[in-house]
Amino acid sequence: MSLQFPFIISGGTGSGKTTLLEALGELGFQVFPEVPRLLIEQQSRLNDGVLPWTQLGRFAEMCFQEMVIQRGLAQQSKQLSFLDRAIPDVCAYLEFGNLSVSDNIFSEANKEYQQTVLFCKPTRETYVQDEVRPYPFEEALSIHQALRMQYQGLGFQVIEIPLMTVQQRVEFVVELCQTHTATTISKES
């Protein structure tokens, strides 16, 4: 397992992932934004934009292409790097939408990532419905469960990040990831 492989932070929408990643970035870690959110914002400005609630299959393919690029950029980092969602999320969203996952997407879903994945769970305190998150809180929880099952099914070790202050979450993540990479180094030696 390469230490250059990025860590994934995933979980249901509105769970504090982006806030956590921003705090990690402020500490100097390499962080990458959530591809689906960026694409939704971009595609919403177009007359014929591709959005997940109208064209999930096409939207998933766009996410996949961007996530492959993002993963490659993360691997070039000389420090711990973190992704806000990754290719396994695409698989989970397709399955959640009752669409099949292409062989191409599925074959990339568990390659070149750290095998420990950090999960944030949405709570009523963290969840905010907006134009990028048009579904109710209960659906965010269902999505969270689908994501968790997808990651576990792909062989990832899922670690839930407890609901704490942002600073406490950052400390939890940094300690966990540093311990994981130290263990990986000793196993490879």
What is the compact description of this entry?
Pfam families: AAA_28. The chain has 189 residues and is α/β, with parallel strands linked by helices.
Topology:
Blueprint: E1 7-11, H1 17-26, E2 30-32, H2 35-44, H3 56-75, E3 81-84, H4 87-96, H5 103-108, E4 116-120, H6 137-153, E5 157-160, H7 166-188
Parallel strand pairs: 1-3, 1-4, 2-3, 4-5
Helix pairs in contact: 1-7, 3-4, 4-6
The CATH architecture can be named as 3-Layer(aba) Sandwich
Strand order of the largest sheet: 2-3-1-4-5
- Number of domain modules: 1
**What would CATH call the class?**
Alpha Beta
Q: In this structure, how is the largest beta sheet organized?
A: 5 strands, parallel
Number of strands: 5
CATH homologous superfamily label: P-loop containing nucleotide triphosphate hydrolases
The count of helical stretches stands at 7
Q: Would you identify the regions where 5 or more consecutive residues have pLDDT less than 50?
A: none
Report the β-strand fraction as a percent range: 5-15%
Cα-to-Cα separation, first versus last residue: 12 Å
What is the fold-level CATH name, i.e. the topology? Rossmann fold
Integer-rounded radius of gyration: 16 Å
Query: What best-fitting shape do the alpha-carbon axes yield?
Result: globular
Summarize the amount of helix as a percent range: 40-55%
Q: Tell me, rounded to a whole number, the average pLDDT.
A: 90
Order of helices and strands: EHEHHEHHEHEH
